[in-house]
């Protein structure tokens, strides 16, 4: 089973590399990805330590940062709403 998973991951990695170089994306997408990653972490940090949402702490982990990267600032509102609704 581990060999099958390793094979699928290897083929996926090779295909992703092929797509990046075939479409001539270059390395510019890494800059955009890094900027989105940093801004997402900063947005969650601001919510946690400014008290915008009373007594609400959103952990900085890959899932929360990924949510904010994809959804933007509405993603922060979504996480705060989920935290208040489910645990409040």
Describe the structure.
This protein is mostly helical and 88 residues long. It has one domain. It has 4 helices and no strands. The chain has helices spanning 2-22, 28-50, 62-71, 73-87. The longest helix is centred in the middle third of the chain and has 23 residues, at 28-50. It starts with a helix and ends with a helix. The mean pLDDT is 85. The chain crosses the membrane at residues 6-21, 28-48, 60-82.
Task: Detail the topology: elements first, then pairings.
Layout: H1 2-22, H2 28-50, H3 62-71, H4 73-87
Structural class: mainly alpha
Mean pLDDT: 85
Distance N terminus to C terminus? 42 Å
Uncertain spans: none
The number of helical segments is: 4
Instruction: Estimate percent helicity.
Output: over 70%
Which sheet architecture does the biggest sheet show?
none
Rounded to an integer in angstroms, the radius of gyration calculated over CA atoms is 18 Å
* Proportion of beta-strand residues: under 5%
Q: What is the general shape? A: elongated
List the secondary-structure elements in sequence, H or E. Answer: HHHH
Number of extended strands: 0
Supply the number of structural domains.
1
């Amino acid at each position: 089973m581990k060999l099958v998973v390793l094979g699928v991951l290897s083929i996926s990695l090779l295909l992703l590399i092929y797509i990046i170089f075939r479409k001539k994306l270059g390395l510019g997408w890494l800059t955009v990805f890094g900027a989105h990653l940093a801004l997402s972490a900063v947005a969650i940090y601001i919510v946690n330590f400014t008290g915008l949402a009373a007594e609400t702490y959103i952990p900085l982990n890959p899932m929360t940062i990924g949510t904010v990267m994809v959804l933007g600032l509405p993603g922060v509102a979504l996480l705060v709403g989920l935290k208040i609704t489910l645990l409040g």
